[in-house]
What we know:
The complex is a heterodimer.
Chain A: H1 2-8, H2 20-52, H3 83-116, H4 121-135, H5 139-153, E1 161-163, E2 167-170, E3 173-176, E4 178-181, H6 186-213, H7 219-238, E5 242-245, E6 248-250, E7 253-255, E8 258-260, H8 262-288, H9 292-300, H10 305-335, H11 347-359, H12 362-391
Antiparallel strand pairs in A: 1-2, 2-3, 3-8, 4-5, 6-7
Helix pairs in contact in A: 3-4, 3-8, 3-11, 4-8, 5-8, 6-7, 8-10, 9-10, 10-12, 11-12
Chain B: H1 2-21, H2 26-33, E1 36-40, E2 49-50, E3 56-57, H3 59-72, E4 78-82, H4 88-93, E5 99-100, H5 108-111, E6 116-118, E7 123-125, E8 127-132, E9 146-151, H6 155-166, E10 171-176, H7 179-187, E11 193-197, H8 198-205, E12 214-216, E13 224-226, E14 229-231, H9 235-254, H10 261-264, H11 270-276, H12 282-286, H13 292-299, H14 303-310
Parallel strand pairs in B: 1-4, 1-5, 9-10, 9-11
Antiparallel strand pairs in B: 2-3, 6-14, 7-13, 8-11, 8-12
Amino acid sequence: MSTNHDISTAPAKPPIWNDPVYRGIFFQVLVLGAVVLFGLYIFNNTAENLERQGIASGFGFMNTTAGFGIITHLVEYTEESSYGRAFLVGLLNTLLVSAVGVVLATLIGLLVGIARLSKNLLVSGIATVYIEVIRNIPLLLQIFFWYFAVLRSVPAPKNSIALLDTFFLNNRGLYSPAPMPQPGFMWIVIALIVAIVGIIIMRNWAHKRQERTGQPFHTFYVSLAILIGLPALAAIITGLPLAWEYPVLKGFNFQGGLVMIPEFVALLLALSIYTGAFIAEIVRAGILSVSHGQTEAASALGLRNNITLRLVVLPQALRVIIPPLTSQYLNLVKNSSLAAAIAYPELVSIFAGTVLNQTGQAVEVILITMGVYLTISLTISLFMNWYNKKMALVER
Amino acid sequence: MMKRSAIAFSAITATMATAGVVQATTLEDVKAKGFVQCGVSQGLPGFSNFDDKGNWTGVDVDVCRAVAAAVFGDATKVKYTPLSAKERFTALQSGEIDVLSRNTTWTQTRDTALGLNFTGVNYYDGQGFMVRKDLGVKSALELSGAAVCTNTGTTTELNLADYFRANSMDYKVVAFEKADEVVAAYDAGRCDVYTTDQSGLYAQRIKLKEPDAHMVLPEVISKEPLGPVTRHGDDEWFDIVKWTLNCMLNSEEMGVTSANVGDMAGSDNPGIKRLLGSEGDAGKNLGLDPGWCEAIVTQVGNYGESFAANLGPETPLKIERGLNALWTQGGIQYAPPIR
């Protein structure tokens, strides 16, 4: 009886305008509405101003003929290609220098980070000087330094440094023979894919066997053998259907072959050396975060130093390393846009530079460019978050 | 009744709100802030360059100063915004600058789709090539396979592509954002050829380590009429900049110089009277003082004086008048009459 009474006299529901839940929703809708209205206002204002000044707008320009040349392109491109194609060329050049840069920077960072903790004073001293010098000089200056250092230290095309008459180095780039796949080359590619699938299956099997019986397996050497052996076998059977196109000095420059232009080399060096210095500090912090007791315990079990580093310290350190490492990767990708200063034809230089100027459609071009960087960065973030989850401590 | 007047009232306020979007004219803006904001290059000797005394000089800078002289009667009331080739049009379109006087080529796209108005031509230029003398090249037609350094975002890049395609020649273009980097890379041997407008080649050659080791090839591969630019939508301001240039050209044609303008004011020649404002309504028609053109000639000089002081044979650039001579002297500089 008394409980019934309690319920009936519980505080009456407040009127709707005093209910914190409804009030919260109301204000959120209000703020959202204001933001949307503000966005619409900006959009309309821009459109109206462009209209009034008679400036062309829209994305139709992407199909117009570009009419300018680009020094290096991963996909087919000529002056008759469209602005859309030029955009693709710039995008791929950005991705190329970023991808190679991320790998190089990680290697440099890992080596220098470990070197910094070395007991050898010379090694740790060199690592410290490298980090402190590189981290504290603006990246743009470093890009110029590498560009003009690269340019001035190598000879003109007529006096190229030649290796075996196949590789040539001069101030127009590093020339090497270009592989020209002939019919039948597909079989080697198929063999490579089979090899990779085989390695994955073999590793799973070895892992399971070790868990069951405790017996280790020479996974690394067997993987290497399969990776090289299978494609090599395919090449022997098909008679290596691959021709090479050699660079030849014709007139002013070398023609044919593959060329790595000095702008790419300078940008790659600058980006990976600069970012490598930051990654080194992250690696050092990660390793120091693993308590010394872990190393001592490993030694007590009789594990050798390199095995301790590989199986005990690094896996735990990675949990600390990965999140800040993601930021460094993002920085590297975004910093690649500084290439516009040294004529490497990446996205900002080609699209937000030349295309913007030829078409005059600043708003559209900048929007697309920002969208591209946002997409690349979010993709890297997603991947690194997934990897971080995978590496996280699994508590049993 | 009440309701109808309420509707009428809201209609009026709506109209007023729309009208409010239309800005004050550029001339009013310029007069209100007290100076002309002029877009120039980041440093091109002879056209717009920051000299060792800390002043901007050049024929493009003289156009800016002449506009200030016409509007304020004082050529010093100018502020300069150095712009890269890439930034220049956006700066003008957005109203950051009032007039763009930055060796800019008059093309159809820029005059229409970019929402700009070219007010005339203050220098008739054409694109050329510069090479090292020791290459032994005598003509641009021998340049097949060459690496070519140039600027991004200019007509130069397109003319280059057109010329090499039309003559079925190969080339590699290395395009930099700033002119200084183009010169540095060309000097370091990155390219065989440096291409830009011929006047620019002569101007940049001074900056090379050994200017005498380089030569400009005879071919001119494009028409590059360079001139001052204003934005669409303000014809009054467009007229002022256009007639500023015409005033300088007409003065040269009539023999009025900064030295003799005081004496010329008493001339009986009706053409000179109209030019210097003692007869006719030229100033009033532009919304300026009657002495607008006199102020330009007194403080900046006529077109010939500006050319001689910045580009002519007496300067390090040593450029002949050529196409830029008056029509009466074998060139194509021809200004409509002031009447």
